[in-house]
């Protein structure tokens, strides 16, 4: 028995000795500070990448929402999709979104060099969306020494529509923040919170309409696809190839009281052809323009966090600056026996060189007003109140060409004549309110309601002519139309 005990004790001692020897060969676990070092140069959430002077912040967010009355698209808007108020309308719409963001920064002799990217998924679900179609990316840009280059936000933007309404695309605004915009810009800091930016940007194109005997290359022969308002003509139709970026400039001030900005942009109009082949010629290139100004005033004397914001925009030939989020340009809604329509364009041209009726591209005029107020009922409960109005109008020559194509006029180009009562000027206005509960600094739940009304163009006797009648709509007359939509959203940030 003593022999067995001695053998067991000896074996245990040997095992301990072997284990201790093997443990001595393993690497010693480093203290956490050797792996992760906080970088406080750029705010919360940054840390140094091991072995470098580069600071990195990983963030992101996840969101789920549902809307009723949106006609199948949050970006095109209720009145701007290839559908109308009938049996095939998708009234219920859901979206799930999630993005991972990475923000990398380091010091250089000429200032901070920064790279930023945001990638994830974004659905647009009307009951049959495939998951493979949900990949999304809306930021990928570099900043250094005052330059910003890549997919960022237009430097024309001032009014952040998505900060006041979840379904901001259902009302007119210039805001490109949600989808992002290609820019190559330089910003000069002038001191006292004043800055100035000059930027070359992706062009904001509505459509150019060719009222010619045959379709121009790349453009429709009438203001409506396939001779109807359904589906609407999409962005950029009727333009030639991309030859010039939009040139954008702004002068901005940001201080404790709020902010203000004046901005302007030049936009190239390069129509396609008068006819079907290059031999028919084309209108000369010209530049449209848009200008605007906005102001935001913080009103903590009402309640901490409160603010009011407003802006005014005016354009000739660059109408897409007034409704950037929408993926379409023309607008239509049908309700029972009534239909409202609006033809959205940057310019209209027509006629032929041979007949002496060729016109230049007659630019469309438009203006817009946006205003919003954000009120904090408590530090966690806040509500926005928004109003927006847009008006689009045509010269007599452009209107005559449109009316002729709509069956309410005659002639082509400079010889076109509109029938009495045909007017393609149209407008759009809406109001909305969003109520949000900030459960924590990084998690909120909210609801909102939006009312929209389209002020339709008119036709003789307000009777729809053949090119305007929508298939199977049963629409009989022209009238202004309106709509309500309602949204609920739940949102969680990865970092506060």
Q: What is the ordering of alpha helices and beta strands?
A: HEEEEEEEEEEEEEEEEEEEEHEEEEEE
Helix segment tally? 2
Our Rg estimate from Cα atoms comes to: 29 Å
The termini sit apart by 68 Å
* Class computed from helices, strands and strand pairing: mainly beta
General shape: globular
How many E-type strands? Answer: 26
The biggest beta sheet reads: 16 strands, antiparallel, barrel
Q: In percent, how helical is the residue content?
A: under 10%
Beta strand %: 35-45%
What does this structure look like?
The longest helix has 24 residues, at 2-25. This protein has a domain at 151-493. The protein is built from 2 helices and 26 strands. It is mainly beta and 496 residues long. The protein has helices at residues 2-25, 396-405; strands at 37-38, 47-48, 55-68, 92-108, 111-122, 135-144, 147-152, 181-191, 194-201, 208-211, 246-255, 258-269, 286-298, 307-316, 331-335, 338-342, 347-350, 362-363, 365-376, 381-393, 409-410, 417-418, 426-440, 443-455, 477-478, 481-493.
Descriptive tags:
single chain, 496 residues, mainly beta, 16-stranded antiparallel beta barrel, three-stranded mixed sheet, 26 strands, 7% helix, disordered N terminus
